[in-house]
Amino acid sequence: MNRTTPPPPPTVLLRGGEVHSPADPFATAMVVERGHVAWVGSEGAADAFADGVDEVVHLEGALVTPAFVDAHVHATGTGLALTGLDLSEATSLEEALDRVAAHARTRAGDRVLLGHGWDASRWPGGRPPTRAELDRATGGRPLYLSRIDVHSAQVTTALLDLVPHAATLRGHHPEAPLTADAHHAVRAAAYGAVTPALREEAQRTALAHAASRGIGQVHECGGPEISDEEDFTGLLRLAEEGNGPRVVGYWAEAVAGERDAERVRALGARGAAGDLFADGALGSHTACLHTPYEDGASGHRGTPYLDAEAVAEHVTACTEAGLQAGFHAIGDAALGAVVAGFRAAAEKTGLERVRALRHRVEHAEMLDADAIAAFAELGLTASVQPAFDALWGGEDGMYAARLGVERARTLNPFAALLRAGVPLALGSDAPVTPLDPWGAVRAAAFHHTPEHRVSVRAAFTAHTRGGWRAAGRDDAGTLVPGAPADYAVWRTGALVVQAPDDRVARWSTDPRSGTPGLPDLTPGGPLPECLVTVVGGREVFRAGA
């Protein structure tokens, strides 16, 4: 069967707005041709292009920026949360149980009920639902209910009956939420009940929602402990239709040699990276720490999944195969194992070979100065989620409850990473936090801990060009001639060059520096509204369409 070659995207002149471009900090117009930026410049010069284009777009003062890149998502889970049971806004255990019961009544035909997003740390009493409470709320039906960080879940008795071996696995608890291997087993059973049609609907919903937020590319973090191969390859096929954001896939499976590397490539993955778990998450008490949790069982330090030797084996095999590697690591002990493993791999393969592949670490929350220096030395990209701090940071937040205030203040040190020369790529980990790129930029610029704040400009760059660079592309993520025409059009207020902290260099805030302006993201104010998103010169979202 021959596929029809789609017509080339139109040649478009955009004019009468504000174009965020390093090629011309005062640009008001842009020409897009054959899916790439052809010209950026002033309104007066735009007249010369008006007769030679297929379409002229009058921006009426709107802002044009590069489309965002969300460097860490789980598309199916995001779509299911958007269309189904999402408890992230539940303010109490009682409200959560009421929502579960209502969902069960409306989904009478589902083999397994799926829900996401509960966070007992924000509820009065701080207690998650018990298995018995969920049994009553669902009428005894199978239910998988993941915590907001997706590293633990509470389930009903009926779901456990479908996975009897889960009771023998690490992380099984008679009443408390499941973690580790037991959690992975019940999650596989729950998502195995999702029909292909429902899965595709969820993926389309997630990609359409991303486009509506000005996101032109997402990095899907799949793997055998998260989804399955059909889920992963189905999403990549869906993205090939070209009706939404680009999808860069990462498959989190350990590689021991060239044969494993080829299998990862055959799936369509950019690398054997993403959520290859070195540990779990702080909210679920599974992030692996050097010092015990403040509010956990006596002496509990989390759950290690990989040691330095396993990390080194994976990085060495990937490096020798020319494949990008990466890990999920949050706790300081897990990050220590990851750094030690990368160093051992560099000693074996050569430091420059390791650096050249831009291996990456997801989340990278509990980094000390030595670990940050090692990231810089090894050329590692930190794929980070500023919304984590916005949601859980501060002296009264979940981080402080888990770690104590002093340790919590060290988390997510974005400024120190940038000062050391560590590349940042920003993302959401959706459905853990929403697809909200301007919110992420705001969260990085107004971090709960002032010394970790970065300028809006730096955070914006990490959420646009940084995502492209994390996937190996240096020629994209900015609106300059020759770059892919991935851009978004925004309704916003006055543009400023914003440094929210006196420690940020003041020269960059002076309009005479020629630095392009960005929206004012001061907390409490409105965020920009996406009007249009374009990927490769093709419109993938229009407000009101």
Question: Strand-residue fraction?
Answer: 15-25%
Shape: globular
**CA radius of gyration:** 23 Å
Oligomeric state of the chains present here = single chain
Summing up helix and strand content along with how strands pair, one would put the structural category as: alpha/beta
Unreliable stretches, pLDDT < 50, 5 or more residues?
A: 505-512
Walk across the major sheet and give the strand order: 2-6-19-22-23
Largest sheet: 5 strands, mixed
Number of helices: 20
Q: Could you tell me the number of beta strands?
A: 23
What share of the residues lie within helices? 25-40%
What gap, in angstroms, lies between the N and C termini? 32 Å
Q: Indicate the mean pLDDT.
A: 94
Description:
Keywords: Hydrolase. InterPro entries: Amidohydro_3 (IPR013108), Metal-dep_hydrolase_composite (IPR011059), Metal_Hydrolase (IPR032466), YtcJ-like (IPR033932). The chain has 20 helices and 23 strands. The chain is an alpha/beta fold and 545 residues long. Strand 12, helix 8 and strand 13 form a beta-alpha-beta unit. The radius of gyration is 23 Å and the shape is globular. The two termini are 32 Å apart.
